[in-house]
Design goal:
single chain; disordered C terminus
Length: about 325
Amino acid sequence: MATSNAALPSMGKISMIGIWIETVLYGVNCVMYGLCMFLLLRGGKVPTLRWVLLVMCTILFLLCTVHVGVSVRQLLEAFVYAPPGVPDYSTTYWLDYTTTPRVLKDNVFSTLVLIQDLILIWRLYVVFMSDWRVVVFPIILGANSVACAYVASTLLALPNVGQLYDTRITALRLTISAWTSGLTLNVSVTGAIVGRLWWMTQTMASLSATSTNRFASSIYIVVESGAIPAVTAVAVLALSVTNSLAVFSVVDVASQLTALMPFLIVVQVAQTGRSHIPSSDFSKTVLTTKDGITYRGGVSGEQASQQDLALDTAAPSRSPSFVHSGLV
């Protein structure tokens, strides 16, 4: 860890700012997790997926709690438990990749990203009615991203890695590969989900003879949940390529954002139930059930003429047009 002051003038300050922002976001995650539990345990409107969502939310919350806890431990080791007689220890400490807190945080963050990717791929799988072919490419991207991240973390944890130039370069390349694969996965899957929802909107509009966008809010939440991780990935990639010291702080912040996005989606899911197209005409209703969406057509007040139509009957058998109640 022999590094000059001139090369690292503000490493301690950068790390403190990043951990402070991470702590603020962790507070937001605490509120969101509590809200998720309230919505899901009150007898929410997604009974089929309730326990799956509960487990996923709890795992994400525990992991982001561990991450922020380890960050606090790093602050203590750098500024409170610093060994006497070691000049600039609070600065050079942050560049020691072999410390237990650093290794633990890297692996926790990689696991958070893995869970986020699994949720994203699962949503894509549901949107396309369990068609395994649409998730093959995302699974390959996700596996590459996570594998590169874990291997890079392992390489950086090797003893005397600071003196192993080739090892550090390899770890950097693996890190860039991990973030590139993750960004590609996020953008492609989010785009596919939005495209599918848009296609479903057009199908429903043709059945109901209305231009009302039933899935406008769903499309918005999908784009929003995909945009923030994408922006984070771009920022980390740019900082990694330029060897900026701020990349460590951005990753700390990203750890909390990784958990926050699924929480936001779960809150939206838990409040999804019965929707109308259009809202002023109760004879044209979209019934959201655990089996999908059924369109009810007919003239208001003429119950005898109403007929339930499963939206997947208007599409090919391998690409039905319905949304699972736990999709978005």
